[in-house]
Specification:
Its EC number is 2.4.1.83. This is Dolichol-phosphate mannosyltransferase subunit 1. Pathway: Protein modification; protein glycosylation. Belongs to the glycosyltransferase 2 family. By secondary structure, the chain is an alpha/beta fold. The protein has a single domain, classed as Spore Coat Polysaccharide Biosynthesis Protein SpsA, Chain A, CATH 3.90.550.10. Helix content is 45%, strand content 14%. The protein has nine helices and seven strands. The protein has a seven-stranded mixed β-sheet with strand order 3-2-1-4-6-5-7, sandwiched between helices. Strand 1, helix 1 and strand 2 form a beta-alpha-beta unit. Helix 5 packs antiparallel against helix 9 and helix 8 packs antiparallel against helix 9. The site of guanosine-5'-diphosphate-alpha-D-mannose (GDD) has 22 residues, from strand 1, strand 2 and helix 3.
């Protein structure tokens, strides 16, 4: 059976999550799904034993490999590298830390058969984000989501759990997709030539809790997001737009909130 589906996982210092993610993913895919699916970790030279972990899984027969980048660093560029190396026509991206349940991957692949792009969404009835998220993270997350509203109809464009049909990536103009920001799904939703008459697929999922390793979210990532938003607004609406002005007003408020938080904790 040939590979038609690829799962791409950006990973930095995620050794302890590699085995549970791989075994849970292939179990969820079932026999037939597993035969047509490859799993690719894109690691930025973590040097924490992730490579050996993947080699051990290969010996057990899993179709898994790890790309180790030594000269590049960053979540979005890692995801894009995996996308371009993927053999499948249908590609899913997910985090390594098991906050994105591997058991939801088959639903995302199913959805992708009839939609050009699918988002795993935390904003749907019955699902949600971790109840233990501190207030500041909820505020940042909902503000970030609100600011992306004019760029896409997707309910959760901040999600790192998403998929696309590879042909749309290949149809993008050279140099359009920028891999600097942290929010690669938003970048792709705003810039790919997706057909206007087909909706974005949405699959609800509950955002899990990271139990191993650490989040790489930091103040720097927030600033990167704001820079990315500015670039996407200009791409979509042109430079001289009122929306851009509003964006900067919101950026200012967010920045003040962030400073306020830093002072308190
Ligand atoms: N290769 C590589 N991988 C990276 C890098 N930075 C982060 N990653 C990987 O990217 C995934 C997400 O990083 P986290 O650090 O776990 O992100 P988070 O703060 O938990 O953010 C989550 O929530 C966001 C929405 O609020 C999501 O957009 C994001 O994808 C992630 O799910 C993890 O698998 C992590 O190892 C990097 O520089 N290089």
């Amino acid at each position: 059976m040939s590979i038609t589906q690829s799962v791409i996982v950006p990973a930095y210092k995620e050794k302890l999550n590699i085995k549970p993610l791989t075994t849970r993913l292939f179990a969820a895919l079932g026999n037939d799904g597993a035969k047509s699916t490859e799993l690719i970790f894109v690691d930025d030279n973590s040097q924490d034993g992730s490579v050996e972990e993947v080699e051990a899984l290969q010996k057990q027969g899993y179709d898994v490999r790890i790309i180790v980048r030594t000269t590049e660093r960053g979540l979005s560029s890692a995801v894009l590298r995996g996308f371009y190396e993927a053999k499948g026509d249908y590609i899913i991206c997910m985090d390594a830390d098991l906050q994105h349940p591997p058991e939801s991957v088959p639903s995302l692949f199913d959805n992708l058969k009839t939609h050009p792009f699918v988002i795993g969404t935390r904003y749907a009835p019955g699902v949600g984000i971790d109840k233990d998220w501190p207030l500041y993270r909820r505020v940042i997350s909902s503000t970030a989501r609100m600011m992306a509203r004019p760029l896409t109809t997707a309910s959760d464009p901040m999600s790192g759990f998403f998929g696309l049909q590879k042909k749309y990536l290949l149809e993008a103009k050279d140099g359009d997709i920028d891999s600097k920001g942290f929010k690669i799904a938003l970048e792709l939703l705003a810039k790919l030539p997706l057909p206007a008459d087909k909706p974005i697929g949405e699959v609800p999922f509950s955002f899990g809790v990271r139990t191993e390793g650490e989040s790489k979210l930091s103040g720097k990532v927030i600033i990167q997001y704001l820079e990315q938003l500015k670039e996407l607004y200009v791409f979509k609406f042109g430079a001289n737009n009122l929306v851009l002005f509003l964006l900067f007003a919101i950026i200012l408020v967010l920045y003040i909130l962030y400073q306020f938080y830093s002072l308190l904790f």
